[in-house]
Amino acid sequence: MAEFSIIDTYFNRQNINSVDLGVGDDSALLTPPPQQQLVICADTLVAGRHFPLDTNPHAIGWKSVAVNLSDIAAMGAKPHSILLALSLPQIDHDWLKGFSQGLYDCCDQFGVSLIGGDTTQSPHLTISVTALGWVKSGQAVPRSGAQIGDYICVSGQVGDAAFGLNHLGHRLQRRLDYPTPRCLLGQQLKGLANSMIDVSDGLAQDLGHILAASHVGAEIELDQLPIDPDVKQLQQEMQWQYALAGGDDYELCFTISPQNYKKLLQLKLDVNISKIGQITPNLGIRYNNHGVDQVIKFKGYQHFA
Ligand code: ADP
Ligand code: MG
């Protein structure tokens, strides 16, 4: 009984887009738009592992949706809906109220409906969200499409969230707690970018996935990395560490031909784009700072965990 009253009280709001059947039946029903492919992904957050137990529940709700919409965006797709699988150690109404509000706030901002899920009791608080989106058939932007000569670009700023984690209470903690999935940019890059990924584990590692999938390498200009002015107060090695190895930014990293880059700059974008390097035939990533070769020894993602 408790399970149904939780669903009805917290997770059964009206859908905000086309859903044939949402929360309340054995499955949800959607009608695929003509000539579109279904884009689908899932991400799980475990309390004590992906966030501290005392994290603001509103932020947890927001982030559990945002990280999935970021994966949909990284394909060049339009997000449509989510499913929520929730495992709760106990029924805490204050927590559920904050969590569901944060979840719906993120859904509302990006025009996404919660269309179903599962609610269970378990010793560990675990939140698993599945996101669904649509993309015109054959137009999804894969990791594997980078071409030699492509510009490498990244949206927003990198390193903010890792800096926020190490400086709790600082303005940049908001970038850790409330990441902004780049949904509009992702869709604008469909048909323009050759490859794309969202930056969740640090720019160097995530760009590395594009390079491996595309069998190419990269030259990165360290002086072009979009780094927050407060992070820029740190010594240079530390700045690069945050920008390249810090996690949880949820920006988009993409590669694009010089011609399409010009077209991109003519669009009305809702986030800044930085051109940080170029795709090369020699594998791996080379770094330079103001044109001078630079070797970077990463302390690794763990440093910030
Ligand atoms: P079943 O037993 O048939 O799997 P459930 O009793 O688990 O169905 O769920 C009832 C309805 O509530 C279903 O439509 C399911 O998708 C939805 N639901 C369950 N938990 C959640 C949740 N946490 N968020 C949103 N919808 C949920
Ligand atoms: Mg059933």
From TrEMBL:
<dbReference type="GO" id="GO:0000287">
    <property type="term" value="F:magnesium ion binding"/>
</dbReference>
<comment type="function">
    <text>Catalyzes the ATP-dependent phosphorylation of thiamine-monophosphate (TMP) to form thiamine-pyrophosphate (TPP), the active form of vitamin B1.</text>
</comment>
<feature type="binding site">
    <location>
        <position position="198"/>
    </location>
    <ligand>
        <name>Mg(2+) 3</name>
    </ligand>
</feature>
<dbReference type="GO" id="GO:0005524">
    <property type="term" value="F:ATP binding"/>
</dbReference>
<feature type="binding site">
    <location>
        <position position="26"/>
    </location>
    <ligand>
        <name>Mg(2+) 4</name>
    </ligand>
</feature>
<dbReference type="InterPro" id="IPR006283">
    <property type="entry name" value="ThiL-like"/>
</dbReference>
<feature type="binding site">
    <location>
        <position position="43"/>
    </location>
    <ligand>
        <name>Mg(2+) 2</name>
    </ligand>
</feature>
<feature type="binding site">
    <location>
        <position position="118"/>
    </location>
    <ligand>
        <name>Mg(2+) 1</name>
    </ligand>
</feature>
<feature type="binding site">
    <location>
        <position position="200"/>
    </location>
    <ligand>
        <name>ATP</name>
    </ligand>
</feature>
<keyword id="KW-0479">Metal-binding</keyword>
<keyword id="KW-0808">Transferase</keyword>
<feature type="binding site">
    <location>
        <position position="50"/>
    </location>
    <ligand>
        <name>substrate</name>
    </ligand>
</feature>
<feature type="binding site">
    <location>
        <position position="26"/>
    </location>
    <ligand>
        <name>Mg(2+) 3</name>
    </ligand>
</feature>
<comment type="pathway">
    <text>Cofactor biosynthesis; thiamine diphosphate biosynthesis; thiamine diphosphate from thiamine phosphate: step 1/1.</text>
</comment>
<feature type="binding site">
    <location>
        <position position="71"/>
    </location>
    <ligand>
        <name>Mg(2+) 2</name>
    </ligand>
</feature>
<feature type="domain" description="PurM-like C-terminal">
    <location>
        <begin position="184"/>
        <end position="281"/>
    </location>
</feature>
<dbReference type="InterPro" id="IPR010918">
    <property type="entry name" value="PurM-like_C_dom"/>
</dbReference>
<feature type="binding site">
    <location>
        <position position="201"/>
    </location>
    <ligand>
        <name>Mg(2+) 5</name>
    </ligand>
</feature>
<dbReference type="GO" id="GO:0009229">
    <property type="term" value="P:thiamine diphosphate biosynthetic process"/>
</dbReference>
<feature type="binding site">
    <location>
        <position position="43"/>
    </location>
    <ligand>
        <name>Mg(2+) 1</name>
    </ligand>
</feature>
<feature type="binding site">
    <location>
        <begin position="117"/>
        <end position="118"/>
    </location>
    <ligand>
        <name>ATP</name>
    </ligand>
</feature>
<keyword id="KW-0418">Kinase</keyword>
<dbReference type="GO" id="GO:0009228">
    <property type="term" value="P:thiamine biosynthetic process"/>
</dbReference>
<feature type="binding site">
    <location>
        <position position="71"/>
    </location>
    <ligand>
        <name>Mg(2+) 3</name>
    </ligand>
</feature>
<keyword id="KW-0547">Nucleotide-binding</keyword>
<dbReference type="Pfam" id="PF02769">
    <property type="entry name" value="AIRS_C"/>
</dbReference>
<dbReference type="InterPro" id="IPR036921">
    <property type="entry name" value="PurM-like_N_sf"/>
</dbReference>
<dbReference type="Pfam" id="PF00586">
    <property type="entry name" value="AIRS"/>
</dbReference>
<feature type="binding site">
    <location>
        <position position="143"/>
    </location>
    <ligand>
        <name>ATP</name>
    </ligand>
</feature>
<keyword id="KW-0067">ATP-binding</keyword>
<dbReference type="InterPro" id="IPR016188">
    <property type="entry name" value="PurM-like_N"/>
</dbReference>
<feature type="domain" description="PurM-like N-terminal">
    <location>
        <begin position="24"/>
        <end position="135"/>
    </location>
</feature>
<dbReference type="GO" id="GO:0009030">
    <property type="term" value="F:thiamine-phosphate kinase activity"/>
</dbReference>
<feature type="binding site">
    <location>
        <position position="301"/>
    </location>
    <ligand>
        <name>substrate</name>
    </ligand>
</feature>
<dbReference type="InterPro" id="IPR036676">
    <property type="entry name" value="PurM-like_C_sf"/>
</dbReference>
<keyword id="KW-0784">Thiamine biosynthesis</keyword>
<feature type="binding site">
    <location>
        <position position="248"/>
    </location>
    <ligand>
        <name>substrate</name>
    </ligand>
</feature>
<comment type="similarity">
    <text>Belongs to the thiamine-monophosphate kinase family.</text>
</comment>
<protein>
    <recommendedName>
        <fullName>Thiamine-monophosphate kinase</fullName>
        <ecNumber>2.7.4.16</ecNumber>
    </recommendedName>
</protein>
<keyword id="KW-0460">Magnesium</keyword>
<feature type="binding site">
    <location>
        <position position="71"/>
    </location>
    <ligand>
        <name>Mg(2+) 4</name>
    </ligand>
</feature>
